[in-house]
Amino acid sequence: MTTDSRRPLAVFDLDNTLAGTAHRQRFLEARPRDWDAFFAAAPHDPPIPQGVALALESSGECEVVYLTGRPERCRRDTLEWLAAHGLPEGPLHMRRNGDRRPARHTKLEVLRRLARTREVRMLVDDDELVCEDAERAGFRVVRARWTAPSGELRAAQEGEGRT
Fold first, then answer.
1. Which among 23, 39, 56, 125 is most buried, taking Cβ atoms within 10 Å?
2. Structural domain contains residue 4
3. Closest by alpha carbon to 11, among 134, 111, 126, 150?
């Protein structure tokens, strides 16, 4: 994969932005939450047409970058999913295995690192807290409001730092 360091970056979240997670929410409703099953089901996520269309459209002017709270151990499945659904090639930034900080902290850290050397044209994410923090930091945000919000997923993102 080649990158063009002159092109701005369009940064896309995965879960509930590009990939529909409704079919695997049941694993977060169980107590204790079944994280292994939740992530094992990710390869079966349906693509979200609005998110995919925006990523494809953005790839005309920007280099598409993927920024997810999924743990590093999901890299192979995630790359295969992106390719299978015709999404543009681009770097994939994932949470380190064992990193339990809230997504709003881990994602903002990556955005700031990317912005040191490249223009970040936009962040597309469904997590309202991530979006708010990114906007406060000066990033342009597109809120991915094309799926129903999940209280369980939000609690997991904030309280458990799992996705």
1. 125
2. no
3. 111
How many contiguous H segments (helices) and E segments (strands) does the chain have? 7, 5
Range of the domain at 143: 9-160
Among the listed residues 42, 162, 38, the one whose alpha carbon sits nearest the alpha carbon of residue 103: 162
For 86, the token pair is: 């015709």
Residue identified by tokens 């590093």 is: 72
Q: What is the per-residue pLDDT across 112-136, written as a single tens digit (0 to 9) for each? A: 999 999 999 999 999 999 999 999 9
Q: Which two tokens stand for residue 141?
A: 């945000």
CA distance 20 to 40: 14
Phi, psi of 131 (to 5 degrees): -60, -45
The pTM assigned to this predicted structure is 0.91
Work out whether the CA dihedral 19, 20, 23, 26 comes out positive or negative: positive
Distance CA 147, CA 16 (A): 6
Q: Would you say residue 87 lies in a domain?
A: yes
The answer to whether position 2 is within a domain reads: no
Contact 19, 46 (CB under 8 A): yes
Q: How many domains, in total, are found in the chain?
A: 1
